[in-house]
Known about the structure:
Layout: H1 8-20, E1 24-26, E2 37-44, H2 51-61, E3 66-69, H3 83-92, E4 96-101, H4 109-127, E5 131-136, E6 154-155, H5 160-163, E7 166-169, H6 180-185, E8 191-196, H7 208-219, H8 223-226, H9 229-236
Parallel strand pairs: 1-2, 2-3, 2-8, 3-4, 4-5, 5-6, 7-8
Helix pairs in contact: 1-2, 2-3
Amino acid sequence: MSAEPFTLARYSEHLAQALESGYRFLGFEDLDGEPPFVVLRHDIDYSPRRALPVAEIERQLGVSATYCFHVTCPWYSVEVEPHRAFVEAVLEAGHWLGLHFDASEISSDADVVAGVERDARRLEALFGHAVTAVSFHMPGRRTVGGIELPDGLVNVYGPRFFEEIAYVSDSNQDWRGTDVEALFAGRAVNRLQLLTHPFWWRESYGTIGEKLEELAAELGVAVEEIATWEQVELIRRGAA
């Protein structure tokens, strides 16, 4: 029997099924690799600490993923401890470094590109690893798919990822109708970008509300300060 959803045990099962079905796990620099493959990406919205258990499961299975960190955001900065140490631990586990960037309040595409370049180079200087992928935070708040990035930086919301490569995300603990186990078991797609948020994956199942309450307590803020409107609505309806 499968482990509970959105637990670390269940995450390990998903990866094991993909490997059993013959999928390879590639980085964003290998998008023209031989299928079937998965480009596994993690957006670190709130807590670099929560990335470590997921990174360790992947290391044990021989899987590499791209971890997209903010340089600085309201909830953490990779330039200070202990967050910097968590990023280093993820990289030491054999994973790739990506940038998570919030463009929602930037009106000009040119200013977005300039900010991405600045933060990507800062990440590279801090950790000595190349940044290839750029993931935009809350892409539904602003059109980002058409933004072309320079110097080999891949916009993970570019058209290719919706026209040539399938896309599946665990946003708000919801696969949005995708049966991930069946997808991997039946090899339903040959090219896939799989996004997960390590913050949601724990030893035991918990609701979105429970996890955000815990985070709010750690940060010393109200849940409403960290939750999106969608999350607030899910909590209000008792659906999360």
